[in-house]
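tool_call: predict_structure(chain=1)
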Amino acid sequence: MHFKYFEWDERFARKKGASPFDTLWDLFQQLLTVASGDVAHALKWLKEINEEAGITEEFEGHYSLSDFIEELKERGYLEQDPKLNVLMMTRKSERSLRKKSLKQVFKNLKKGTLGSHETPYTGKGLERKPETRKWHQGDEIGQIDSVHTMLNMLKHSSIDTFNLQEDDLEVHDRDLYTSVATVLLIDLSHSMILYGEDRITPAKKVAMALSELIMNTYAKDSLDIVAFGNKAWKISVEDLPYLKVGPYHTNTKQGLEVARHILQRKKFANKQIFMITDGKPSCMIENGKLYKNSFGLDRKIVNKVLDEAVKCRKDDIIITTFMIAKDPYLQQFVREMTEANKGKAYFASLDNLGGYIFEDYIQNRKRNVR
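tool_result:
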């Protein structure tokens, strides 16, 4: 695996008012994500950074990395594996990584770009709209706008007699909230770490952030995660920090197929696939064997991917592709697949990947309701 190293960034330095533990924990979580949950590797990198930048030298009371490790264990972020005799992450640290990822994604979004979790249709919901309309049979009493109703009544009433008629009643509309079933596809092919660029870490961060958002804010939605390389397999939210790129080709066809089968079992009005990838489809399963071709776009493989995109369209499953590569011929493939599915595509950089996905996730709820 190859990484790019940069000069010490002051953003990693101790924040004003932050404790020694919080300062190191903030940095250590980033290292854990890059190390795919390997605590030993993350601690090794932390030690190297500390030797280079002298982070602990700025702490009062001689707080050392050994003190930090002990506090991690005391707070329940790390535990000792009794069989392997190594430190490992706990469920608490996994949750902390998801929360940190969510915070980072939202911090990078431009203020005001995210809408509420609603649809353009009106009906029974949570948020009252300022606009009013005439009352219809079945409308809730709590929706009645008393001011406009009284004004309507006074138009045909006198000081002595109030004459309230059915047509006088006006009610507030409410935004109709809907639920969405989403499958997030993450490319784990070898190209995600080629050319000295770590693409898998931003993809993992976005996946952790999206899962945290859905589980804690939109509990009625569903999120399934599928990783794909030579083949595709479903993973759990808890697996996200530990994802690693392998010596894999890119089986986009099976990734979409697994995602489609998951969504076919969901009883949701809106179904969508978010696919994060940087490479061309380069393999597929044929007659039980792996057919692969890493040179150019193999039409045999591409046509199978397009067939899968059409099947998704027929099942009312929208595919949104987030392509984190700039090769013109790859972008042409994405456009071809998007046209077959009538879906969407973004040619995103690693810096704005989270913003694209979060905004699209929320906006899709407005467009896809039936």
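agent: Residues 180-367 form a domain with the Rossmann fold fold (CATH 3.40.50.410). Proceeding to next step.
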